[in-house]
Amino acid sequence: MKNILASIGFILAFLAIYMGLQIWYIVSVQFIISFMKAFEAGLAGDVTPDLEKITVSIQEAMKIHLPVALIFSAVLAALIYYFICRARKQNIVEVCAFNPISFKSAIVFVFTGISFLFFNGSLNTLIYESGYLNDSFQQLESTFAPFYEGNFLLSFASIAIVVPLIEEIIFRGLIQNELRKHMRVLPAVLIQAALFGLYHLNLAQFIITVLMGILLGLLCVWTKSIWGAIIIHGVNNALSFLFAWFEPEAIQESCFFLNYIFLALTTLIIVSVMVYFFRRRGEAADQSPQTSEVSI
After folding, report:
1. Domain membership of residue 126 as a residue range
2. What's 110's DSSP letter?
3. C-alpha distance from residue 117 to each of 121, 123, 215, 233, 236 (Å)
């Protein structure tokens, strides 16, 4: 029981550290901007600062600072996770299974990431057309708006590279490894996937992130490596960002007309990839230096 409680504590800490650093950075930036604008207003003789100007200044600043917040919090969180693992006499590289994969597998994962992007778009279109979760979709759009209005390279780096890497370390690495100490593979994968969905704090995003969490969690187990999950996650995020940046309306329109075809084809591709790696899981185990696997 003591070990289970300790694992729960570490899981909560892993989640809180990354999110807490993001919140701390964003709140700090907003406080500094508000203070500077109020100070400038005071120097100009205005007793009451213009709240509308302060709000506009914060919104403009967030176009740069939101991507920076993701990068800053990811780098600092990764360092903290490293020292946590070291204090527990663990190697974070081994815990997260940064084991090499073949070039052939990497190519398969790239195409899987592309397929998941269209699966994601098709499923979200179906949900949106149903009339449910409209508020959640609007919230999601407003959340990501600053990324599409700011610096392209900075936003792309944060969404397509940094976020997939740190989220895979947290969920498919640290958390899934912690859960598998106390349960079989399938419940561990389902729990980390549910946490992954809840972590995004958006009901519209919850469904697709849970499905992604299950897919990536199982692939990590079957391939004995986190690289496949990072590639799929990264490709999905990168293409999603590029489509939204350059031609969001055209992409949305194409998904509307071909939605059911995309959903069927991409589901077939993803299931085929899952079956392929499930059948090869014994080969991955033979090539991996990891310890023996817990059965599903």
Report:
1. 2-287
2. H
3. 6, 10, 13, 9, 5
Cα→Cα distances 1→7, 179, 215, Å: 10, 14, 30
Encoded tokens for 118: 């269209």
pTM for this model (two decimals):
0.89
Cα separation of 182 and 248, whole Å?
A: 44
Contacts of residue 198, defined as CB under 8 A and 6 or more positions apart, other chains included, come to 206
Residue 209 inside a domain? The answer is: yes
Is residue 237 within 8 Å of residue 163, measured between CB atoms?
A: yes
- How many CB atoms neighbour CB 56 within 10 A? 12
Q: What is the pLDDT of residues 124-171, one digit of tens each?
A: 888 877 777 888 888 888 888 889 988 999 999 999 999 999 999 999
Q: Of 208, 132, 209, 126, whose CA–CA distance to 170 is shortest?
A: 209
Does residue 82 form part of some domain? yes
Residue 213: count of CB within 10 angstroms of its CB: 26
Q: What three-state secondary structure class fits 109?
A: helix
Burial label for 27, CB within 10 Å (0-12, 13-18, 19+), is exposed
Q: DSSP string spanning 42-96?
A: HHTT-SS--HHHHHHHHHHHHHHHHHHHHHHHHHHHHHHHHHHHHHTT--HHHHT
Task: Provide the domain count of the chain.
Answer: 1
Whether residue 100 lies inside any domain: the answer is yes
Does residue 214 fall inside a structural domain? yes
Q: SS3 letters for 192-228?
A: HHHHHHHHCCCHHHHHHHHHHHHHHHHHHHHHCCCHH
Nearest of 200, 13, 163 to residue 74 by alpha carbon: 163
Of the candidates 149, 188, 165, the one whose C-alpha atom is nearest the C-alpha of residue 64 is: 149
